[in-house]
Amino acid sequence: MAERGAIVPGRVFTDDRGRTAQLHGIGLQRVGDRWLAWGEDKAAGDRFTAVACYSSEDLAQWHYEGDALTQADGDIGPDRVVERPKVLQRPDGRWVMLLHVDGPVEGQAGDYAYARVGFAIADRPEGPYTYVRSERPLGNLSRDIGVYQEDGVGYLLSEDRDSGLHIYRLREDHLGVEAVVATLRQQANPAIGYESPTLVRHEGRYYLFGSDLTGWSMNDNMYASASALEGPWDPWRPIAPPGTCTFESQVSVVAPVGDGYVYIGDRWDPSRLAESPAVWLPLRIRDGGVELEWRDRWSIEELGA
């Protein structure tokens, strides 16, 4: 096995061009013998520039594959907020990208009142993707999103400020929502759920991760578990030691790698969003609990990859 590169949490990744890899708010998939990542290009701050695509063999060294989605009129114009690119492959082999799409509303860009999920489609995972449409799933607000897939069935995880965190089943073509599977809320504040959701299944049990609603500020991210997507879901618990604000990061993805998982988080710097550092750490799920510990430097060999 080739030696794996080192991941240094709290730093930005640099791509093969020597530039900061725009791996913000990413989606990640194992495709063949490499990982593909789709990230928010924050060159224009919080306004949409592009969704960049990168590939890696070790989650440490990144090759720029090009822009998977670029600006167009309407939902993905330069005045819009386009976040959390997540990608699934449909059973027919085509690839669908889901996005949080926001602003402008009544001429005001970026006020997060538009609150829709957008859909784009491509023949290759790297793109280019063609934007198709957006919706408020079943009429609900949709801001930060995640995705999950099992046995060819796709699911959307979506934060709805009015009702909680929804798990939706997608339509067969993955270009829309079909039904609500479950809705989760915070214990301390049952009126709301968690944002930036991600979901994995481990040893027959589901683990759902999310972040509190504190804007660019970090918080103690949480997880809940259940034996079925419909629930019942166990109470929320912190991912990392309480008080660390999840090592000053916000979860974007928890991805299976080797014998464990990788926690992929963002340490947002609102004054320099394009240079916001990455906080990627090994994560273990054992005996129904989650273990996330700080590492100054590590590689995916620690997870048996």
Descriptive notes:
The protein is mainly β and 305 residues long. The chain has a single domain (24-297), classed as Glycosyl hydrolase domain, family 43 (Tachylectin-2, Chain A). 1% of the residues lie in helices and 46% in strands. It has one helix spanning 245-248, and strands at 24-31, 34-41, 50-56, 63-70, 81-89, 95-102, 116-122, 130-135, 145-150, 153-160, 164-170, 177-184, 195-202, 205-211, 222-226, 237-238, 250-257, 260-266, 278-286, 289-292. Strands 1-2-3-4 form a four-stranded antiparallel β-sheet, with no helix packed on it. Strand 17 and strand 18 (260-266) form a beta hairpin. The longest helix is centred in the C-terminal third of the chain and has 4 residues, at 245-248. The radius of gyration is 18 Å and the shape is globular. The protein starts with 23 loop residues before the first strand and ends in a 13-residue tail after the last strand.
What's the arrangement of secondary structure elements?
Blueprint: E1 24-31, E2 34-41, E3 50-56, E4 63-70, E5 81-89, E6 95-102, E7 116-122, E8 130-135, E9 145-150, E10 153-160, E11 164-170, E12 177-184, E13 195-202, E14 205-211, E15 222-226, E16 237-238, H1 245-248, E17 250-257, E18 260-266, E19 278-286, E20 289-292
Antiparallel strand pairs: 1-2, 2-3, 3-4, 5-6, 6-7, 7-8, 9-10, 10-11, 11-12, 13-14, 14-15, 15-16, 17-18, 18-19, 19-20
